[in-house]
Amino acid sequence: MPNITQSSHSKGSLFYVIGASGVGKDSLLHYARQKLASDPVVFAHRYITRPVELNGENHVQLSSQEFATRLKHGCFKFHWHSHELDYGIGTEVDSWLNQGLNVVMNGSRGYLNQAVANHPGLVPVLIQVNLNLLRERLLKRGRETPAQIEKRIQRAQDFTGLQAPNMQVIENNTELALAGDELVKLLKSQG
């Protein structure tokens, strides 16, 4: 845990949650969101150029043109392109931080260095899982071919030594509530 303290006049903390596909990031964020509903913690929606899925992430769908217009007019605090999609986090995040709220966002490992440069006090939260367990989860999920799964495993290995200032690591190798409670405790801290 970082040494996080806050006076009543301070801004909130920005938590940038990242992890390989299949580590349980979305499940952990859902768990934390439910547990923190009455706390001064808000979860930023991502703006994504993909359709909304009933079982997927609760994001705001934009067309490529809408995304480009918002980007042109400075509506995004963070934005990146990954897997042939555009992702953005709106500038409303700054308003929430200025009100002393902690803000949680679903980030991108590949955009981490840029995110830190744009918001130096950012707290990256890396969700990790044992690679054999990750392979099991991806196979069980059934979205990718075995070859695609092996590419995801390789990509997860490539990010194992990921480093950034304030980096927090949560291991999600057992039941969801253990890692979930660790995430909840972290998100309630302020810096």
Describe the protein's architecture and organization.
The chain is of the alpha/beta class and 191 residues long. The protein has a single domain, classed as Rossmann fold (3-Layer(aba) Sandwich). The protein has seven helices and nine strands; from the N terminus they run E-H-E-E-E-H-E-E-H-E-H-E-H-H-E-H. The strands form two sheets. A five-stranded parallel β-sheet has the order 2-7-1-8-9, with helices on both faces. A four-stranded mixed β-sheet has the order 4-3-6-5. The N terminus is likely disordered.
CATH superfamily: P-loop containing nucleotide triphosphate hydrolases
Main structural class = alpha/beta
Annotation, overall tally of beta strands: 9
Biggest sheet architecture: 5 strands, parallel
Measured distance between first and last alpha carbons = 11 Å
